[in-house]
């Protein structure tokens, strides 16, 4: 793992200390954080953050600083509900906490709908 990825994972872990069912897995080219069995975020090697969000909020969230449509490779969008946030847009903990909060909120809706 890159130093940027290790640092971002540490910051995410500190934000999730109150969550009871958190685990980490390697997927989507990063180290992903699973909450209640569903991915909420992934720390990318370059320090960027991949987040799983409500597809109904996708277009509005793309207007946030550093947010872009997540891609799996050249020309392959991941679809609505998958957003990548540039490392410099989550440089302070308040910004990172906001994005993790959006992902957690969606996770709770999806988990409650099971």
State the main characteristics.
114 residues; alpha+beta; two-stranded antiparallel ribbon; 3 helices
Q: If you had to describe this structure to a student in words, what would you say it looks like?
A:
This protein has 114 residues and is an alpha+beta fold. 32% of the residues lie in helices and 31% in strands. The chain is built from three helices and eight strands; from the N terminus they run H-E-E-E-E-H-E-E-E-E-H. A six-stranded antiparallel sheet has the order 1-2-3-4-8-5. The chain has a two-stranded antiparallel ribbon with strand order 6-7. The longest helix has 20 residues. 27% of the residues are buried.
What topology emerges from the helices and strands here?
Blueprint: H1 3-15, E1 22-27, E2 30-35, E3 38-44, E4 49-52, H2 58-61, E5 67-69, E6 71-73, E7 76-77, E8 82-85, H3 93-112
Antiparallel strand pairs: 1-2, 2-3, 3-4, 4-8, 5-8, 6-7
Roughly how much helix do the residues carry, as a percent range?
A: 25-40%
The name of the CATH architecture is Alpha-Beta Complex
**Helix and strand run:** HEEEEHEEEEH
Give the overall shape.
Answer: globular
Tell me the major beta sheet: 6 strands, antiparallel
- What would you call the structural class? alpha+beta
Low-confidence stretches: none
Main sheet: strand order? 1-2-3-4-8-5
Number of strands: 8
Highest CATH level, the class: Alpha Beta
Q: Please tell me the total number of domains.
A: 1
CATH topology: Aspartate Aminotransferase, domain 1
Specify the number of helices: 3
Report, as a whole number of angstroms, the end-to-end distance.
34 Å
Beta strand % = 25-35%
